[in-house]
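Our preliminary data section would be incomplete without showing what the modeling component actually yields. Below, a chain of 142 amino acids is followed by its predicted structure, encoded as C-alpha cells that our downstream tools consume directly.
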Amino acid sequence: MEQRVSLITLGVQDMANTAAFYERLGWARVESPDGVVAFDLIGQTLGLYPLDALAEDIGVAAGTLGRGAVTLAHNLRSKEEVDELMQRAEAAGATVLKAPQEAFWGGYHGYFADPEGAIWEVAFNPFAPLAEDGAFCWNGYG
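Predicted structure:
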C-alpha cells in the first residue's frame, strides 16, 4: 500500500447545505454521479456522501458512524492566511471551535466545524513549509 490518501469521504445528513458550505469557502465541485458531491484537492478528493447510504455501504448502522474523532488539516503559508481563512469559514457557516492562536509546537492554528460537524484544523507550521503548489509533507519542502 502506498503512503497516501486518495479520497476523504464525509458522511453527511444535509448534502445541499454541506456542499454549499464548501462552495462558500471557494471550492469548486467536479462532475460526479448523482448522490455524491466531490471537490478535487491537491492530490486527493473530498467527497460528500449521504450518511445513511455510507453506513449501508459499509454494513453498519448510521449511528455507529456518528461524529468520529477525525480532523482534517489545511496548512497555509502564514499566520495571516490562517486568520483570513478562519474568518472566511465562519462567514460561510462554520462554527469556530478554537480561535487562531500560537500552538505549543511552535506554529499557529485554529479549529472549525463544518455544518455537519467535520472538524478542520487551519494551521501555519514554520517547520513544514508548503511546496509551491500547496502540497504538504511532514518535514516541509524547503
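The first strand starts at residue 7 and ends at 12. The two ends are 27 Å apart (CA to CA). Preliminary results of this kind motivate Aim 1 of the renewal.
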